[in-house]
Amino acid sequence: xxxxxxxxxxxxxxxxxxxxxxxxxxxxxxxxxxxxxxxxxxxxxxxxxxxxxxxxxxxxxxxxxxxxxxxxxxxxxxxxxxxxxxxxxxxxxxxxxxxxxxxxxxxxxxxxxxxxxxxxxxxxxxxxxxxxxxxxxxxxxxxxxxxxxxxxxxxxxxxxxxxxxxxxxxxxxxxxxxxxxxxxxxxxxxxxxxxxxxxxxxxxxxxxxxxxxxxxxxxxxxxxxxxxxxxxxxxxxxxxxxxxxxxxxxxxxxxxxxxxxxxxxxxxxxxxxxxxxxxxxxxxxxxxxxxxxxxxxxxxxxxxxxxxxxxxxxxxxxxxxxxxxxxxxxxxxxxxxxxxxxxxxxxxxxxxxxxxxxxxxxxxxxxxxxxxxxxxx
Length: 377
Description:
Elements: H1 3-30, H2 35-63, H3 66-81, H4 90-104, H5 107-119, H6 126-151, H7 156-171, H8 189-193, H9 196-226, H10 230-249, H11 251-258, H12 260-280, H13 285-293, H14 295-313, H15 319-348, H16 351-372
Helix pairs in contact: 1-6, 1-7, 1-9, 2-4, 2-5, 2-15, 3-4, 3-5, 3-7, 5-15, 6-10, 9-15, 9-16, 10-13, 10-14, 11-12, 12-13, 12-14, 12-16, 14-15, 15-16
């Protein structure tokens, strides 16, 4: 397994997320957009994640050259992103965001499938590779927090462009794994999707990410309005991902001891607690710090358990589309609707209400996971 080449790709990919998620909303706010407009614009990358991964996943499953898709998506992302340097109006910026995120969202699901193919029967080692993505995110938020304090949110633009280019360069170092054995009699993917456990699983993933919408869209703006510096905001983001890193290091043990289903449910319960704390105690740094440590569960353990379940639900030539569906329905549809409606809630009812709604959505996901999600089909 090319451990360091796979890990370097994750490092670069999630460094881009570390630049985009915490600071893009601040950049949009500086351009003069309202809370509703920021919510709508931040929903665009999530919305493209609904359709793009499945389209690229279908191509990857049928053509077999997943890394070609990864390289093409990464290069086109970099080229299209250049337009953002000159566009500042709502519609033109929205169109540019839709285009570059369409290509960017082609990349990760296919690369996840490539990583799992390299791991073969050692899928519990996935977290040991993916952890470098968290390290990249931490590096980006810490360094950019200081840079934004000194130079303003526009510094995000050149940094993001360089990171997008580095994603493409790192993809050139990785070859496609050995060809998969295609079984002609494999169960059609629609018959898998009709299984109650699979439908419940995707609904749970959708609801969790819908609950994350207000956090991803407004957390930095929320803390800035309370009075925290950009440097400190970056440090709060970093604390969450450091906790995620520590969980990834022991994830293979947690999966063996608890199983993916129990880990999924525990992560959802801790997510509900996290949104409650953030929404009600913004001026209490120790509570915010503890809430950020819960990112280890709301993203880290949940994502690892979800990837594990997708790998077991979708096998053989369905692997790429399974990963794409997970990305599309959770980070795509769930994230987009969560970001969109969080803007309306933030504008009409305020931060506390928006985070309360996120808590309630997550608790609904707990009930569904408890009742219907299973470890194996």
